[in-house]
Amino acid sequence: MIDLPPEGPTAVCISASPEETRALGEVMGRHVGAGDLIALIGELGSGKTVFVAGLAAGLGVDPTAHVSSPTFTIMHRYLGRLPLYHIDLYRIETPEALATLGLEEYLEGDGVAAIEWAEHGVRMLPKERLTVRLRQTGLETRTVELVPAGDRYRTLLRRMTSDLAAATRLLA
Ligand SMILES: Nc1ncnc2c1ncn2[C@@H]1O[C@H](COP(=O)(O)OP(=O)(O)OP(=O)(O)O)[C@@H](O)[C@H]1O
Ligand SMILES: [Mg+2]
Fold first, then answer.
1. Which of 48, 50, 135 to mutate to test the pocket of ligand 1 (most atoms within 8 A of CB)?
2. Number of Cβ within a 10 Å radius of residue 119
3. Closest Cα to atom 10, ligand 1: which residue?
4. Sites in the chain below the pLDDT cut of 70
5. What's the confidence (pLDDT) of residue 123?
6. How high is the pLDDT of residue 7?
7. What's residue 122's pLDDT?
8. Closest CA to 110 of 137, 62, 77
9. Where are the domains of the chain?
10. Protein residues whose CB sits closer than 6 Å to any atom of ligand 1
11. Whose CA is nearest to atom 24 of ligand 1?
12. Which residue, by CA, sits nearest to atom 30 of ligand 1?
């Protein structure tokens, strides 16, 4: 296929604690705009929800709101300066199940969609997105790769770079 938006350049951050991962999410939350799609990929416990909690904070969501994986409800909505649609596709394993979710409503609309286990939605999610790939490298360490696909997300990532570097150790 040649209609895929070109990916990269990727930003790679090293997080040494949950607080740092949260801070990275918070930086992103300050920069995202309506219709943005943030696709989170990484194993169980890699920090996707911690990152989204930061994203919510950066969007100005009430700090007392508890952000948790919407594994059973599929979607949690939080209201900050924009709505945040926090979606978890962990339990979505078939194209049929994916099709019944009505995800279109949350994409390219009034808010920001942050989707955990986004790889379970490859068949229907827009190809233009900012992927956040988390890898556990130690008890408290994670690599956090930010991979933009499409010009919109390359621009977004460029605008965040210096803030990301201030929040953690930005390698590249
Ligand atoms: N550097 C780090 N960044 C993020 N989380 C960390 C870090 N170090 C330790 N942790 C811990 O790892 C766990 C990450 O949990 P989290 O719920 O965010 O994972 P998840 O990727 O959303 O998993 P799931 O796929 O089950 O939803 C938390 O308990 C957090 O305290
Ligand atoms: Mg989670």
1. 50
2. 14
3. 18
4. 1-4, 169-172
5. 81
6. 84
7. 86
8. 77
9. 11-170
10. 15, 17-18, 20-21, 42, 44-50, 69, 90, 116, 140-142
11. 44
12. 18
Nearest ligand 1 atom, CA 53: 18
For atom 1 of ligand 1, the residue with the nearest CA is 17
Structure tokens at 145: 């790769």
Residue 4 pLDDT = 59
Give the pLDDT of residue 108: 80
Residue 95 to residue 121: CA distance in whole angstroms: 8
Domain 11-170: assigned CATH number: 3.40.50.300
What was the pLDDT predicted at 171?
56
Map the chain to HEC letters: CCCCCCECCCEEEEECCHHHHHHHHHHHHHHCCCCCEEEEECCCCCCHHHHHHHHHHHCCCCCCCCCCCCCCCCEEEEECCCEEEEEECCCCCCHHHHHCCCHHHHCCCCCEEEEECHHHHCCCCCCCEEEEEEEECCCCCEEEEEEEECHHHHHHHHHHHHHHHHHCEECC
